[in-house]
C-alpha cells in the first residue's frame, strides 16, 4: 500500500507559492497552505487540501498549520517556504526597524517553519524542504538590499541544515528565481535576461516539484537558479 505524500506550502496564497501548491497537488500530494490573505484557504479547498489563514511571522499560526496537517494527514513530506516583499530603500536610509522587518520577511520565514516541521521529517526519516529565494543571492542588487542581505543568510542556514540532517534523509535546497511574471514587468528588466523574457511562476513551481520528488533524492544543500541566464556564476 503506497503512502500518501503531504506538502505544506507557507505563504502559498498567490504568486510562486500558489503555483507550487497547484503543481504539487497535480503531482499527487495532499497540500496544506498558510497565507495571510485568506487566498490560501480558498486554494487549498479547491485542491482538496487544508488551508489556514495566518502569518509566517507567527510561531502560533505555523504551529496551528502543522498540528492541523498532522492531525488530518499524519505526516509531512515536503515543506515549501515562500514569502512576501521586504523594505526597499537606499542602503544607508534603511532604519533599524526596516532591517528587522527584512529579517522577518526573508530569513525568519524559513527558520520558523523549519524549526517546527523538521522534527517530524527527522522522525519519519525523510523529507524535502525547498526555500524560494532570489537569483541575486550571490550577486546582490542594490534595488533589493534587505532581500540580498537576509537571503544570503538563508544560503548559509541551508548549508548548515543540509550537512546536519542529510543522514536522516531530510534535504533542503533553495530555488533562486529571477524576473518572474508574478512581478511587475518592465522592458529594461526583460532585456537584461539572456532569454529575453520573464519566467513564469509555473516554471519555478516545476523546479520546486522536481526538488520535492524522489528523482532529486541525492540533491541537498544546493541553490538552483531559475532566471533565464541572468546570473551565470558557478
UniProtKB/TrEMBL annotation:
Gene3D superfamilies: NAD(P)-binding Rossmann-like Domain. InterPro entries: NAD(P)-bd_dom_sf, SDR, SDR_fam. Pfam families: adh_short_C2. This is SDR family oxidoreductase. The lineage of its organism: Bacteria, Pseudomonadati, Pseudomonadota, Alphaproteobacteria, Hyphomicrobiales. PANTHER family: 3-OXOACYL-(ACYL-CARRIER-PROTEIN) REDUCTASE, NADPH-DEPENDENT REDUCTASE BACG. Belongs to the short-chain dehydrogenases/reductases (SDR) family. It comes from the Bacteria.
Amino acid at each position: 500500500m503506497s503512502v500518501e505524500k503531504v506538502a505544506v506550502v507557507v505563504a502559498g496564497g498567490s504568486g510562486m507559492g500558489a503555483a507550487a501548491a497547484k503543481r504539487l497537488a497535480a503531482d499527487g500530494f495532499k497540500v496544506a497552505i498558510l497565507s495571510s490573505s485568506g487566498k490560501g484557504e480558498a486554494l487549498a479547498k479547491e485542491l482538496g487540501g487544508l488551508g489556514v489563514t495566518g502569518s509566517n511571522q507567527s510561531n502560533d499560526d505555523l504551529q496551528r498549520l502543522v498540528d492541523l496537517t498532522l492531525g488530518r494527514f499524519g505526516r509531512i513530506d515536503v515543506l515549501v517556504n515562500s514569502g512576501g516583499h521586504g523594505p526597499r530603500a537606499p542602503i544607508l536610509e534603511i532604519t533599524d526597524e526596516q532591517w528587522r522587518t527584512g529579517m522577518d520577511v526573508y530569513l525568519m520565514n524559513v527558520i520558523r517553519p523549519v524549526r517546527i516541521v523538521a522534527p517530524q521529517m527527522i522522525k519519519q526519516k525523510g523529507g524535502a524542504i525547498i526555500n524560494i529565494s532570489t537569483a541575486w543571492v550571490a550577486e546582490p542588487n542594490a534595488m533589493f538590499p534587505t532581500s540580498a542581505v537576509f537571503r544570503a543568510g538563508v544560503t548559509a542556514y541551508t548549508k548548515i541544515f543540509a550537512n546536519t540532517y542529510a543522514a536522516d534523509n531530510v534535504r533542503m535546497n533553495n530555488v533562486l528565481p529571477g524576473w518572474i511574471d508574478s512581478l511587475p514587468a518592465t522592458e529594461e528588466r526583460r532585456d537584461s535576461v539572456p532569454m529575453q523574457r520573464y519566467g513564469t511562476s509555473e516554471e519555478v513551481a516545476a523546479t520546486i516539484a522536481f526538488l520535492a520528488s524522489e528523482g532529486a533524492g541525492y540533491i541537498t544543500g544546493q541553490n538552483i537558479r531559475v532566471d533565464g541566464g541572468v546570473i551565470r556564476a558557478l
